[in-house]
Amino acid sequence: MARTTTKDAQDLFHSLRSAYASTPTNLKIIDLYVMFAVFTALIQVAYMAIVGSFPFNSFLSGVLSCIGTAVLAVCLRIQVNKENKEFKDLPPERAFADFVLCNLVLHLVIMNFLG
Amino acid sequence: IRNGGKSDSVNGHKSGSNQSPSLKSDLISPTMFNLKTLKLKTKQQELLIRVTILCLVYVLAFITRLFSVLRYESMIHEFDPCFNYRTTLFLTQKGFYGFWNWFDSESWYPLGRIIGDTLYPGLMVTAALMYWTLRFLRFAVHIREVCVLGAPFFASNTTLVAYFFGKEIGDLGFRGRPCGSCTDSDLPWLHLEIRSYDNEGVAIFALLLTFYLFVKAVNTGSLAWALASAFGYFYMVSAWGGYVFIINLVPLYVMVLLITGRYSMRLYVAYNCMYVLGMLLAMQIRFVGFQHVQSGEHMAAMGVFFLLQVFYFLDWVKHMLSDTKLFQAFLRITVTTAVVVGVVALGALQLGISHHGRAASTLLLDPTYAKDHIPIIASVSEHQPTAWSSFMFDFHSLLFLFPAGLYFCFKRLSDATIFLVMYGLTSMYFAGVMVRLILVATPAVCLISAIAVSATIKNLTRLVRAKNKVPSTGSSKGASSTKSSSKASLDQSLPFQRNGAIALLVGAFYLLSKYATHCTWVTSEAYSSPSIVLAARGAYGNRVIFYDYREAYFWLRQNTPPDAKVMSWWDYGYQITAMGNRTVIVDNNTWNNTHIATVGRAMSSYEDEAYEIMRSLDVDYVLVVFGGVTGYSSDDINKFLWMVRIGGGVFPVIKEPDYLVNGEYRVDKGAAPKMLNCLMYKLSYYRFGELMTEYGKPPGYDRARGVEIGNKDVKLEYLEEVFTTSNWIVRIYKVKPPNNRW
User: Can you tell me where the transmembrane regions are (chain A) (predicted)?
Assistant: First the structure.
């Protein structure tokens, strides 16, 4: 059972890797950004677990800025991805402009909330 | 001659005739000018009609709410608006930082109240912004006018937003014009309860705006619209505590879409952007604070957020792996890791999340909660469950148009109509639990009924118009006999169909006009009386106005020392602070139950015990409201049992059965002895025993209770009467300082 599972896992890993290799470069960049943001959020949570959660608003604003920008980047990726039929008549410049605007608002609120 | 005759008879159909115009055509053609002579295309005609209707509706929504302003004067009425007015005044005088950091020592003596942290600033900031804009444009308005007229203004704006919402939903299935005009006709009657300067006026606008923007975001999948809906949500959070409805309805909607399989990428974009940005913006309001991540009421939104991430991630992986076997393996691995991580996280999070929602929310889910646990919330009349008569009174025809509309929504399911159906059903449930929440249900009911009306009218008008087409096609096509015979039979049944359709149309319009009349009547009679000024019919049927409240508050303002403290029941707190400008012990904010219970205990004790309590609170004056002379039934004696219950909830020395006789609440000779000697009784009926209130009845006849009072010989030892208004409605007593020691 375990052997089939590990074999399955290996097959899975290989096929995922090969499928992912075929995605266009711009999408890969966005994915990298998302990974970076989530990683930063995890570091902040780990730090909070060590030193305690006071002041809570600073913690929240830090974590939420990372999660927020990650989520917005995923939305950008969805809108820019050529394979999505729903967004085929949305110019990528417009998608990027929306992304920048939302990030601007996000970071302004974060700066107010940081304390 | 022939041409001349033609020009005379057909001048209505021709645009300003080029032939030499006779006198008749000169007179008649201007009246026929509008639509036909402009030779507008149908689209432009439609636009013109729509814009006209919209403008009319806007104006109508505004002026319907002006009944009380026209009948009495432009003033703030009811209780909560007094507080809102006072805070808005403070904001305009001291600026935003003064307002945000305000500590009010004039209420809840000796505790004070941190106003900046404990209110929803949306309404005040909106009114102040309008005031500053008007001032900037050099209109010298007084802030009170802005406040009083602000609510009607926002009601008009709400009808506008509801129109766009209707268009967003209706665009998909319905012809533009019928839906637009029917939504418009329903909308002016939208918020019968928004007539005072209260949070709900702005909140319903914000609610509808948020919903509209969110539905637009889901329909278009654009980040910009989702950002706009996040701002709409921020506005809603700043305006009213009812924002919890939005933060629960939207995730519920997302769940329903996920379950029914109607999800799409647009949903992901819309919800995520709105949730993260909305949550962050909402936490900027200090009164809300960290509730979005801590309180149980907001957890649904967060849960759906995480669920959405997982769901779409799995969807993406499935899309990448074209082999289902591999995907199942992937599922197996991830599910096991997720369960492990979940258990660990749950253990860690037990420390942080509070499981208690606010009491009011618990009340919504379990209507009997308040009666057993929190008498204060149960005592507010607006929190009672709704009776059918209230529904009928407020909604009239919409009550049976609502199910019809639901049917039409289900017939043309789309993302937007699903949202509308969910909004309608959940808000109707909550409206049934608490009277005040009929407000929240009204936009949904109006929109759904509008859909029913527009669908019906569209079908009927199509029937009416169809006849013109068929004969021509029947005659031009010389096709097979079956076709022509079927057409012939259609032709034959049509006359009745057409008449039936016209009759139904007339009936529908009659129904709508009856509805409109009813709504105007309701607004005029029931929702336009300022509670600070009472009106009644005199002996000759003329209107008699009682200004007792204002008389009393101005007396307080002018005849008491500026640092005097007034004790009254919490209902009048805001008004005393706003109009009497004196410090109060408890007010409508009801944030401190023990303090209110102390006042309740004082009111229900014997005079000497009450004097001790009053001395400990530094009370200088006591104010009671008494309706025995005028028959006013919302006075303190009728509210007295609530004082007993609330006081008894904290101080067990006060027991409710002491004041009742066989479970019955009486004030006449057969009343309980504790009742006949408690402070509230004494203060209400002092010197009342000698008064003749009604012809043919003995002196001391209480017109509100309809009985002769039991204890007519009331003597006060520690208080003295200083003021009673002309109709005895408000009575003020001064607390005597203690006697000099021997």
Answer: 32-50, 56-76, 96-114
Residue B485 has pLDDT above 60, yes or no: no
d(CA B570, CA B359): 19
Q: Do B329 and A64 touch (CB under 8 A)?
A: no
Query: Which tens digit of pLDDT belongs to each residue from B134-177?
Result: 999 998 888 888 888 888 888 888 888 888 887 777 653 344 44
Q: Is the ipTM of this complex over 0.90?
A: yes
Give the span between the Cα atoms of B415 and B437, in whole angstroms: 25
Chain B partners of A86 at a C-beta cutoff of 8 Å? 221, 264-266
Look at phi and psi of residue B556 and say left if phi exceeds 0, alpha if psi is from -120 to 50, else beta: alpha
Q: What is the pLDDT of residue B32?
A: 46
A24 touches chain B (CB under 8 A): no
pLDDT 10s digits, B392-427: 877 777 888 889 889 988 888 888 889 999 999 999
Higher pLDDT, B102 or B11: B102
Check residue B40 and give its pLDDT.
61
Measured between beta carbons, the chain B residues lying within 8 angstroms of A56 are 290
Which residues in chain B are contacts of A54 at CB distance < 8 A?
Answer: none
CA distance B241 to B223: 27
pTM: 0.83
Write down the number of H helices and E strands in chain A.
Answer: 4, 0
pLDDT of res. B673: 87
What is the distance in angstroms between the Cα of A56 and the nearest Cα belonging to chain B? 9
What are the φ/ψ torsions at residue B164 (nearest 5 degrees)? -65, -35
HEC string of B422-461?
HHHHHHHHHHHHCHHHHHHHHHHHHHHHHHHHHHHHHHHH
User: Cβ A109–B321 below 8 Å, yes or no?
Assistant: no
CA nearest B606: which of B682, B668, B711? B682
- Dihedral angle over CA of B266, B268, B269, B274, nearest 10: 120
Q: How far is CA B206 from CA B80, B200, B236, B238, B290, in A?
A: 19, 9, 5, 10, 21
Inter-chain CB proximity B329 and A61 less than 8 Å: no
Residues of B in contact with A72 (CB under 8 A): 223, 272-273, 276
| Residue A105 sits at the chain B interface (C-beta within 8 Å) | yes
Q: Which of A106, A107, A110, A113 to mutate to test the interface with B (most CBs of B within 10 A)?
A: A106
Report the gap between the CA of B578 and the closest CA in chain A (Å): 33
Can you tell me the distance from the alpha carbon of B419 to that of B257, in angstroms, rounded to the nearest whole number?
A: 9
Pick from B603, B602, B580, B600: which is nearest to B590 by CA? B600
What is the rounded distance in angstroms from the CA atom of residue B153 to the CA atom of residue B141?
15
> Does the beta-carbon distance from B273 to A102 stay under 8 Å?
yes
User: What's the Rg (C-alpha) of chain B?
Assistant: 32
Task: Give the residue from B655, B646, B704 showing the smallest Cα distance to B675.
Answer: B655
Q: At what angle do helices B199-220 and B243-260 cross, to 10 degrees?
A: 20
- Three-class secondary structure of residue B579 per DSSP: helix
The pLDDT-based confidence of B20 (bands split at 50, 70, 90) is very low
Q: Beta strand pairing status for B543-546 and B583-584?
A: unpaired
| Residue B15 DSSP SS3 | coil
Q: Measure CB to CB from residue B224 to each of A12, A84, A98 and give the nearest one.
A: A98
pLDDT of B6 reads 37
- For an interface test with B, the pick among A28, A98, A101, A110 (most B C-beta atoms closer than 10 Å) comes out as A98
